[in-house]
Amino acid sequence: MEDYEYGQETPSPQKSIKGYQIIILVLAVILAALSFLYYNQMSGLKRDFAIERDTLTNQLLALRGDYDNLRTENDTIARNLGIEREKADSLLQQLAKERSYSRATIRKYEKEIGTLRSVMRNYVHQIDSLNTLNKELITQNADYRQRVTSERLRADMAEEKAEELSTKIRKGSVIRARDIAIRVLSSSDREVTRASRAARLRVDFVLSSNELATPGERNVYARIIGPDGYILANAANAVFEYEGDMISYSATRQIDYQNQDLGVSLYYNGGGITAGKYVVSIYMDGYLIGSTETLLR
Q: What does the alpha-carbon distance between residue 164 and residue 128 come to, in Å, rounded to a whole number?
């Protein structure tokens, strides 16, 4: 018995160390595998969260756009819509800053978006109800408005016809000037053909007969524009009113019109008469009643 026990072999220290090394190696491999699986799982979760966050962001943007598109004249509803839109903006900002990657986080945002969408549907229903009520009121008042409109149209048409007739009479009563001509006069009042010999100008024309015009005395004016584009004026204060403005004239006189053709001559006695093109315009009673162009040599 003692010989047998004496002959048993005991493990050496080197074998024990080698066994521990194997165990450690196996544990390291297992830890590395678990770390790899955990990393892959977290990466996948981050990708899924990024996709979910993009989806939620698009839903929030669409929801905010729906709130923006809702229009109502009811002050209370409009104010509440603004509050709900601010909630959507705040949730959108929170989502952009979110760093908690979990299903619970996604569910939380989905629930809040669902609440906002439900509230919006409620406001849409209220706005539709108000619009329906407004349409009913409009329909009820349509006959009254139509009657008022018809009466107003008749009154407007009568006023328009009266104004049209008044305008036709007013335009028809305008006295027109015809046969307008410029004569170049020398210092002896003889007609000459050269501007270099001119001492003054005479504007001749005929006021046409017009039975619609009011007879009586009135002033007639001539404006002569020289070749340089400036008005020939006898005096600095030689102006008259035309269409609300005070404009210069070259010659004027008072005539007595009795609804018959009336020959009129106006004289420009100032200087600055040179060769070139002249434009003559005749005015009376606040109207431009005729004009012509003449070339002086």
A: 47
The tokens of 210 are what?
């017009």
Amino acid at position 37, single letter: L
- All residue ranges of the chain with pLDDT < 50 are 1-7, 168
Specify the CATH number of the domain 177-296: 2.60.40.10
The verdict on pTM exceeding 0.90 is: no
Query: Are 190 and 218 spatial neighbours (Cβ–Cβ below 8 Å)?
Result: no
Token pair listed for 208: 């046409």
Buried residues in 42-61 as b, exposed as e (16+ CB within 10 A): eeeeeeebeebbeebeebbe
CA–CA distances in Å: residue 17 to residues 6, 13, 21: 25, 6, 6
Question: To 5 degrees, how large is the angle CA 227–CA 228–CA 231?
Answer: 90
Q: Which two tokens stand for residue 154?
A: 């008749």
Q: Where are the domains of the chain?
A: 15-123, 177-296
Amino acid (one-letter) located at 120: M
Q: Measure the CA–CA gap between 83 and 215, rounded to whole angstroms.
A: 75
CA distance 30 to 34: 6
Query: Residue 223 has what pLDDT?
Result: 95
pLDDT score for 81? 76
Asked if residue 254 lies in contact with residue 266, where contact means CB atoms within 8 angstroms, the answer is: no
Q: How far apart are CA 39 and CA 65, in angstroms?
A: 38
CA distance 137 to 215: 60
pLDDT for the residue numbered 6: 46
Contact indicator for 278, 293 with CB cutoff of 8 Å: yes
Q: What is the DSSP string of 54-109?
A: HHHHHHHHHHHHHHHH---S-HHHHHHHHHHHHHHHHHHHHHHH----SHHHHHHH
pLDDT at 218: 94
Distance (Å, whole) CA 265 – CA 272: 20
How does strand 191-192 pair with strand 177-185? antiparallel
